[in-house]
Every structure is written in C-alpha cells, then in structure tokens.
What we know:
The structure holds 3 protein chains of 3 kinds.
Chain A: H1 3-23, H2 25-48, E1 55-56, E2 59-60, H3 61-73, H4 86-92, H5 95-100, H6 105-134, H7 146-169, H8 171-174, H9 178-191, H10 203-210, H11 219-225, H12 232-264
Antiparallel strand pairs in A: 1-2
Helix pairs in contact in A: 1-6, 2-3, 2-6, 3-6, 3-11, 6-7, 7-11, 7-12
Chain B: E1 8-20, H1 25-34, E2 38-51, E3 56-60, H2 67-74, E4 82-87, H3 96-100, E5 103-107, H4 119-129, H5 134-148, H6 163-175, E6 181-185, H7 193-210, E7 213-218, H8 221-227, E8 230-235, E9 238-244, H9 245-252, E10 256-262, E11 278-284, E12 287-292, H10 299-309, E13 312-318, H11 322-337
Parallel strand pairs in B: 3-7, 3-8, 5-6, 6-7
Antiparallel strand pairs in B: 1-2, 1-4, 8-9, 10-12, 10-13, 11-12
Chain C: H1 2-25, H2 27-51, E1 57-58, E2 61-62, H3 63-83, H4 90-96, H5 99-102, H6 109-116, H7 124-140, H8 146-172, H9 189-194, H10 204-213, H11 216-228, H12 237-269
Antiparallel strand pairs in C: 1-2
Helix pairs in contact in C: 1-6, 2-3, 2-7, 3-7, 3-8, 3-11, 8-11, 8-12, 10-11, 11-12
Amino acid sequence: xxxxxxxxxxxxxxxxxxxxxxxxxxxxxxxxxxxxxxxxxxxxxxxxxxxxxxxxxxxxxxxxxxxxxxxxxxxxxxxxxxxxxxxxxxxxxxxxxxxxxxxxxxxxxxxxxxxxxxxxxxxxxxxxxxxxxxxxxxxxxxxxxxxxxxxxxxxxxxxxxxxxxxxxxxxxxxxxxxxxxxxxxxxxxxxxxxxxxxxxxxxxxxxxxxxxxxxxxxxxxxxxxxxxxxxxxxxxxxxxxxxxxxxxxxxxxxxxxxxxxxxxxx
Amino acid sequence: xxxxxxxxxxxxxxxxxxxxxxxxxxxxxxxxxxxxxxxxxxxxxxxxxxxxxxxxxxxxxxxxxxxxxxxxxxxxxxxxxxxxxxxxxxxxxxxxxxxxxxxxxxxxxxxxxxxxxxxxxxxxxxxxxxxxxxxxxxxxxxxxxxxxxxxxxxxxxxxxxxxxxxxxxxxxxxxxxxxxxxxxxxxxxxxxxxxxxxxxxxxxxxxxxxxxxxxxxxxxxxxxxxxxxxxxxxxxxxxxxxxxxxxxxxxxxxxxxxxxxxxxxxxxxxxxxxxxxxxxxxxxxxxxxxxxxxxxxxxxxxxxxxxxxxxxxxxxxxxxxxxxxxxxxxxxxxxxxx
Amino acid sequence: xxxxxxxxxxxxxxxxxxxxxxxxxxxxxxxxxxxxxxxxxxxxxxxxxxxxxxxxxxxxxxxxxxxxxxxxxxxxxxxxxxxxxxxxxxxxxxxxxxxxxxxxxxxxxxxxxxxxxxxxxxxxxxxxxxxxxxxxxxxxxxxxxxxxxxxxxxxxxxxxxxxxxxxxxxxxxxxxxxxxxxxxxxxxxxxxxxxxxxxxxxxxxxxxxxxxxxxxxxxxxxxxxxxxxxxxxxxxxxxxxxxxxxxxxxxxxxxxxxxxxxxxxxxxxxx
Lengths: 266, 338, 271
C-alpha cells in the first residue's frame, strides 16, 4: 500500500469519525467537559508544588502547567487507550475474512487511525488549548518551533497507534488481549509522562524510560512545545526510529499471527 | 381476594407517546436544548378486550401497530395514558412486582439469560429470584429441559448457542416459576422453519397439558393459525378484529401465494391458463405471483397445471403477509358498514 | 422490602459465585488483568513518590499524608466501582430493549440491576488503596484510639456511598441518552484524581463543586483533616466531621431520586 492510499484511507476514516461524533454530540461535549476537569486538577496540583521552589527537574511553574495543558489536549490525538478491533475479530473468527483482503493490514489500519486522530485535533486538542490559555495554563512556544511540534505529534500518533495494534495482536496467541492491555496501560500512564512530567523522575527511572517507547508518545511533543533543551532534530530522529521499528515489529507479529490462524484455524 | 373470572381485562386503553421533533443544523440543535417541540402519537387507541383462564390468544398486527406497547402495559412496564387495565384483578403498573410472580414473559430477539453463563446457572439464579424451593425448581427445570430437548446445551455458555437453542432456553427461563399467564412477544422471530415448529409444538402441548393462559404476539400468520383459538388484530393502535381464528380465516380466505420463476418472460407467448380459485397477483419479467385458495385448488394440482404450460426454474409457496390481512379486514369492515 | 432484600442478597451472592467461577475459567487472562490493574494504580503511587523527592509538602500536607489521601480515594472509588458493576452495560440494556426484562422481575429494578452482574476484579484498586493507607498510617505514627478507627471506617463507608451514588446516576443518565456517559468520569475518576491532594489547594469555584455539589471532596477531606490532625484553612473541620454521613446520605438520596426520575421517564415513554 503506497502513501497515497494510506492518505485516502485516513481521509475516509476521518470523515466517518467526524460524522459519528456529530451524531453523538452529547458524547463529544461530555468528553470535552471531562477533559477540562482533569486539566484543572492536574494543573492546580502541580502548580501547588512550586510554593517553595522555583524549578523542579529543570522545569519552572509556567512550563509545568503548560506541560499539563498540552499533554491533556493531545491525549485523544495520541491515545494510550482504545479498541482497534483485532482482538474482537480473532475471538469472533472474523479475522479469517480480514486476512483474505488484498490490502496491507498494518498500513491500512494506521491510515484509519490517523483519520480519527485528525478529527480529535479539531474536536479536543484545539478547544483544550484554548481553555488552558484562558485559565493561564499555557505559554506558547517560539513560532519557529511549531512545525517541529506538529511533525512530532504526527510521529507520536503513529507510535501510539502501533502500540495499540501490538496490544491486540497479542490476542493471536493469548486468546484475549485484555491482560496485556492493562499491563501496557499501567506502564504507559507513567512512562508517557501523562501522570507526571518525566523531568520530575529520578535519574534511574529516566534511564528506564529511555528504553521504552512510551515517552515517544505524549512526552516528546509536549517537551518540544515547552522548549526542549536538546536538539529538536535529534528528538524527531529518535521518534522516527521508534515508529519504524514498532511498525516492522507489528508487521512481523501480524504475519506470524496470520500463520497461526491459518494453521490452527480461526 | 377472590380470583376474577378474567385474567386480563382491558377497557378503553389508550397510550400516547410524545415524539420529539429533531431540528436540523447547529441552530436547530441549540434551540433543541431550550425548547422541545414534538407531536403526540397514539400507539394504542381505545382498545378493549378480556382474556379468560385457559385461553390461547393471538395478538396480531404489522410492525409498529401497537402490539408491543399493549404487552408492555399488561406486564406493567409502561403506564397507560388512560383507560383501565386489570391483570389478575390488579393495576399491572402499580402491582408490577406482585404480578411478576404469576406472569412469564418472553421477548423475542432479546435475552433474559446471562450471556456469559451456561443456561443451567441462569435457571438457578432465576429460581433464587422467584423464591422457588430447590426441589420444585429442579423438578420443573428437568421437565422443561426434557420437553425442549435442551440436555446437551445446559452447560454451554449462552453466547455460544444458536438462536433456536437460545429461544428454547428463554422459554424454559420464563416458565420456571409456573406462571398462570404466559406472554410471548414475537417468540418465533428470526427462527428457521424447524426451530419455529419446535417452539409451536411445545407451546401447543404446554397449553393442552397445563391449561396455561397464553398470549402470543406475532406478525407470522403461521404462528397464529397453528396455535391460537382466538385472534385479536390491531392496526395503528386500534383493535380491528376480536374473534376465533375461523372468523378471521373467513376474512382472508386462507389463501396462499405461489411464486414462480419462469424460464421465459412471463408476458411472452400464450397467456397462462389458470384454474378456478386462482388469480395472478403480480407479474413482472420472469417472475409471476399467483394467489390461490387451497380448498378449491390444492397446491400440487396448481403446480402440475402450470408445469404443463410453462418451463419453470423455481417455485416458492408463501403465506399471505400480515399487512395484507389487515388491509383486507379494513375493506371487509367498510363493506359491512356500507 | 425486607423480603426483597433477603432475595436480593441471595441473588447477589449467587451472582458473585457465578462470576468467580466464570473468571476462573479464563484464569490466565484474569491474572494478567489483575496484575495489569494493580500496575496502573501502583504506578500512580510511584509517581507520587517521584514528586515528593523534589518537595517537602503540598499545600501543607506531607508525603505520607498525601499517600493517605491517595489510598482513601482508591479504596472508595474501587469499592464504589466494584459494587455497581451491574450498571456497566446499562447503555446496552436500554439500547437492546433487554431492560424490559429487568422490569418483569419480582424485585425493584435498581436492586436487580445491582445484582445482575458482579465483577470481582475491580477490587484490585481498593486493595492497592488499602496498602497505601496502611503504609502511610505506619509512617505517620499516629496516636490513634478506637474512635479514630471508627472515624476511618465511617470515612470509607461515606466515600463508597458517594462514588456508588455517582455510578448509579451515571447509569440513570441512559434513560435520557444512550450515548457515552463520559461526563460522569469527571466526578468519579476525576474526583479520585482530585482528592488525591488536599482540596484546599484548588480554586474556590472548583473546590465548591466537589465539596457541596458532588461531595467527593467533602467526604475525603473533612475526615482526613480530623484523622491526621491537620489545621483546616477552609473552616469545615469540627462540624464537618459529624455532617459527613449526612452529606453522603443526602447525595446518595439525590442519585437514587435521579434514577427514579429516569425510570418514570422510561415507563412513560417506553423504548
């Protein structure tokens, strides 16, 4: 599958997601409402930590609350939680039909998920950034770095969606991916920097984080927004490497799983 | 309290719903948040009937005619807008839980069984719920399982059962507490011919052996013809007919429909010669639909006569759809009124 | 009513047993999920420890005091969640029409739904919370007597009551719309998140919502102030402790009333 058809597929899925969300207007508003509350809770709690200190882990109070706003805003764009459908398909036996389709499964899936993410940029990320700005929880990045931030978000969404796919691919062997999902969710909550900026971690935990893919999802783009101390191109390069590596891993697991299904029956 | 002669008594029953009008567009949606405009729909309109113990009543109508609404009022799920309803001599809505102990309900295409548990466990839980003594529960369960041939599926999770198997489990579940009144809402919907027949045979036997009062809604005339002694027909909320099945049959003849696919275009060549009691209902392209009265011309004889005249690709024998019967009752009523 | 409760208790017990049997049949997945859920909540606690490597206190509360708040929030949310798992598939029940079956049972609808489905695994969060409360109490070296323990128990009961009420209200919302009930997450999961820290650090409007409208904050903060012997800048302390059960009970009553309103709507309009 070439880039053009991935893009077409993404566009088609974005439209479906948009239509669905417009039908479920109440659901959409209630999601935004809930997101706002979480944004306020985290921002006020972390700001309270700066009562007697100027900086924690190299971040000042403004950077920290900006970190909270940006990470909350892009939570749905770069999701840590979500159903891809492979697990259900394996359990119901539908997977046999999916496997027979003449399209590349992984890139096809990614295309669709990018569409959903694109929708959430408009429906969730931008409104939440606005809310954060109004509440005084947002410092804008230098204008020149915005394009880098956007590229980083795209790469992060890519990685996040492949991780979700990898979780469900485990159902080829385990029957249910539910356990793995929870395990990954536990680690990604901490190591994506959602609960706490990774800058606040002790050195040993930051080292562990370096070797996990999770900080490439929410943390890296957010860090770029608040001004990363490192070379931006280096950060993007690391993200790209992870994205390619995980995608290849998904391809390998998918084909192994396909053999499993074809040999043992769905 | 003395038991009333009738198990169900409905008088001047009326049920109205408010249907909200959805406005289009963003402006409409915002206005919808503040003011709600809608119209009132009468789902059931001035319906009266009574059911005596031991009756087997069919309640017929097209989809949306008001069947399910009536049923839901009888079991106490919905409140009536006006009119009086008595089930076991009590207001079914106010005494919903008391009546529940004496009523068994099956809603077709929905399940009361616990999806992830085997039926045997669902039965056990329902036994607890209905306060059935353990010995009684076991005896009744075994009898029902035996009659419905469920022995093999008792320990299989419900989600793995076929629709037919599940419906038989639903029947068992609804009868465990030996209800005096059994209400079945579309019990054969979605079932194949064999499964339908199994359900019908079981219900016939249940009625014959126990004398249980049965109320059955269906839009399948086969259910009604083969099971019920009395039929109520409802359309657009109004009761059109209340009488025995024979009187209904007089109205629609029990005419049937034969659909034939011909090799050649139906309009080509000589016109088809048809016997008495048979007429062309519809004809288009290769397909022709004949309506016939089996008393005047039996189906095999009709098919033989057509075969002599034309080359046939396929045949299908159908019951007349319920909408048709309802239409006919309308016409008949009007003719009587004229 | 007493008879109903007896039947309900037996159904609930039977459901619990059936659920345990069912979960044992998928043992591998069950263990994985339990470990996973413990990891989710466990790592939240780890994050708290990371934070307190940089600071001494937050809004005047020390590390172990905040761990206590976190543990209480987890216990109450976890048990509230575990008690109300029967409501999880309310949208599905309403959408498919199977809720009609709930209404033809000889038991109040609320009790039947409550006992319809019992999932044990959600207790994981409370176990985690209990662990956090235990270690914090040990580190704080409090001079506690029986009255303190009674207050602790009351605090848990009130917290569970408020969260359970929220889950019931969230399910009752399905009588109006079967769309996602994410809105209530702001108060349930959001409430637990918020009360992980002393409510005094939030701005007045936000604090008021969680103290007086959805009293998740009230039942967490007020007993904690009394139990840990904190000074209370909000002035809720002495009278608030006695009011806590009243607040929790009133809120549960409001949630049940909301459920009744929903039921009336369902009975009037039908599916």
